[in-house]
Amino acid sequence: MPTFLELVNDLRRECSVSGSAVSTVVGQTGEYLRLVNWINQAHAEIQGKYFDWKFLRATAQFTTAVGVETVPAPSDLNTWDMTRFYQGTDQICAKEWIDYRPNTAASGKPSDIFIRYDNDLHLYPNPDDAYVYDYEYFKTPLVMAVDSDEPLIPAHLQRVIVYRAMIMYANYEEAPELKAQAGELFGEAMRQLSNHQLSNKSQFYGRSETDLFTVEVQ
Length: 218
Description:
This protein folds into two domains: 110 residues, no CATH class; 84 residues, no CATH class. The strands form three sheets. It has a four-stranded antiparallel beta sheet with strand order 1-10-3-4, with no helix packed on it. By secondary structure, it is α+β, with helices and mostly antiparallel strands.
């Protein structure tokens, strides 16, 4: 898997930046700092294009405790996949907190899951035993910080980060030919990434729809 440092050096080579290879992403100044920042910015932009990239999907589980109706959200949660909660073979579709009508006297195996305003889960009825629930969610985008950090994007598709960063470099250097070349490469790389990593479903607001996907070079 390419590392943060390797992607920065890929950008340096693609843009024919003079000087030796970047030795670290930490503590840089001047042009090398710009290269580091452009890779990080490009990575952030691509991750933020859609919240439901496959590479942002995660699976986990929790076990209920008797009398405890609240389950904390994962620390890296961006948004829940509300259709993918399971207790054994039973699928549960989570509901919004605004739809909750409490009956605090009820207890048993939770059959309803509500997403609270703070993104924690509320179980109903109140658990009367230990039950295991599996679920899926989408993680927050990764921010790379040290040399060895690796993007979440699959390795064979990570050139898209370099190509987006090349556009930023070309804008800074006022290099229209490089920008045009980078724009073509970035457009094709984003199409490949989208075809590989998007579900092509629009189940509720905010999900991606690749039929409507366009790439604009800025």
